[in-house]
Design goal:
CATH superfamily of the largest domain: Zn peptidases
CATH architecture of the largest domain: 3-Layer(aba) Sandwich
Strand order of the largest sheet: 1-2-6-3-7-17
CATH class of the largest domain: Alpha Beta
Strand content: 15-25%
Largest sheet: 6 strands, mixed
Number of domains: 2
Shape: elongated
Number of strands: 18
Distance between the termini: 14 Å
Low-confidence stretches: none
CATH topology of the largest domain: Aminopeptidase
Number of helices: 13
Structural class: alpha+beta
Length: 466
């Protein structure tokens, strides 16, 4: 379907409004970064509440919503409430569509302070980048929505007929545990024609991307036990299997000699991929000299369309505290990414069966704390994706690249299941050097400006549709 034509005068006026509003958007983003809104259970939930209140205040200042609330929903199967989300609703007028703008205001834990070049919750601009935990993922997504709404509401005034739902989640980094409950609680308010999820990546700092595929995820705690208690490694080593040995041997069965996943029942898929060579992979991922990449196939196919399995944590004595003992039990955290086209539950069963079939020395294993999220493929047949691409071209001056993402945004599948007729657009403010989830996370300020411009352009276009 042909995208809406934007008059040159409107495009110029909108560009000027975005430029005028950029300093305030950066300042407001900095104020959000200063709030350590880590949603994980071990961190103070008061900070997540403070972050939600700050976002709600930005939304109120817009003066365009019929209602704004901070809401919490029950986690499935429990009476425990999830973290606070912000929900602003504006009804559509004169037959215009309704757009839902999603982002999340919670962040990952900062990790070790000494690995940061500046304090993680103190925003600092160095060069063209703003550094701080959440500066990109995903408080920049939050502020992209707020800043684009500021611009479009000033431009259109009373002519803003577009229905708008602002949904800023508070626990995406902790697995969106209450997401389904939130949908059930607010199904009527969340219903929309187009959903913009501002939580993804761009091809580079100069070329935008629209995400069309996402891998699913399966994460769990794996524990291996071989002994009733610790024993002296000198007296019994060589005859008694310790849990660390058993865990190492078990984990080694998950991959082949090339580092590819070797679990029967995990599937791959195919899809078109842009040029992405090994050298770019080495640069983007900071692979050390002499270290090879893993897997087979093109780089994008390995990142987007094949499964992966990573051990992301291990509970064992530290080197400093290691004694000469055979360890009776070891636990690890396993994170598997699932290719589009496979159900997360089927993938989990395949991994579970593999681990049970490959227990070394008859070791006892336990798989607990499992979380699953479904993969996702965007339906590219609707009119909204054409409007989004046109808005990106206008905002960036470059045609967008259709990409997959190796990471997961499981709640998108929940949204699609609840609202099957909605068109989903996955956009973002990150770039290959953002380092989301890592020390020295940062936002490229040029990308931020272009992301705001793109979304303001998209909102203008949606406001013209009947």
């Amino acid at each position: 379907m042909t995208p809406v034509e934007v008059p040159a005068s409107s495009a110029a006026a909108l560009e000027e409004l975005v430029a005028q509003g950029l300093p305030k958007a950066i300042s407001d983003l900095g104020s959000l970064v200063r709030i350590p809104s880590v949603s994980w259970a071990a961190f103070d939930p008061a900070h997540v509440q403070s972050s939600a209140e700050a976002v709600a205040e930005f939304a109120r200042e817009l003066g365009i919503f019929d209602s704004i609330q901070i809401s919490r929903a029950a986690i499935a199967g429990t009476e425990e409430l999830g973290q606070p989300a912000v929900l602003g609703v504006r009804a559509a007028k004169n037959g215009r569509p309704t757009v839902l703008l999603y982002a999340h205001h919670d962040v990952q834990p900062p990790g070790k302070d000494e690995e940061w070049e500046s304090a993680p919750f103190e925003p600092v601009v160095r060069g063209e980048r703003l550094y701080g935990r959440g500066a990109a993922d995903d408080k920049a997504g939050v502020m992209t929505h707020i800043a684009s709404l500021r611009a479009i509401s000033k431009l259109l005034g009373e002519d803003l007929d577009l229905g708008i739902v602002l949904f800023i989640e508070g626990e995406e980094e902790f697995g969106s545990r209450s997401f389904r409950g939130f949908i059930e609680k607010h199904r009527q308010e969340l219903a929309s024609d187009v959903m913009v999820v501002a939580d993804s990546d761009n091809w580079s700092t100069e070329i935008p991307a629209i995400t069309v595929s996402l891998r699913g995820n399966v994460t769990f705690r794996l524990s291996v036990r071989t002994l009733g208690h610790a024993s002296h490694s000198g007296m019994f080593g060589g005859a008694v299997p310790d849990a660390m040995l058993a865990m190492i041997k078990l984990l080694s069965t998950l991959h082949d000699d090339n580092g590819g996943v070797a679990v029967k029942g995990l599937t791959s898929t195919t899809g078109q991929t842009p040029e992405f060579d090994e050298e770019r992979l080495r640069q983007d991922a900071a692979i050390l000299d002499g270290v090879s990449s893993i897997g087979t196939g093109t780089v994008p196919s390995r990142l987007w369309y094949q499964p992966s399995i990573t051990v992301t944590g291990i509970d064992a004595p530290t080197v400093a505290n290691a004694s000469n003992t055979l360890i009776p039990e070891v636990s690890v955290r396993v994170s598997a990414r699932i290719a589009p086209g496979q159900k997360a539950e089927d993938a989990f069963k395949a991994i579970e069966a593999h681990l049970n079939e490959n227990r070394p020395f008859g070791a006892q294993i336990a798989i607990t704390e499992a979380d699953m999220g479904e993969p996702f493929l965007v339906d590219r047949s609707g009119w909204a994706i054409a409007e989004c691409k046109a808005a990106m071209l206008a905002g960036w001056g470059q045609e967008p690249v259709e990409t997959g993402v190796g990471g997961s945004i499981p709640f998108i599948s929940d949204l699609v299941e609840a609202f099957p007729d909605a068109q989903v657009l996955v956009t973002g403010v990150e770039d290959p050097d953002t380092r989301a989830h890592s020390p020295n996370e940062s936002l490229h300020l040029g990308v931020f400006r272009r992301a705001i411009q793109t979304e303001a352009n998209l909102l203008w276009r949606l406001n013209q549709r009947h």
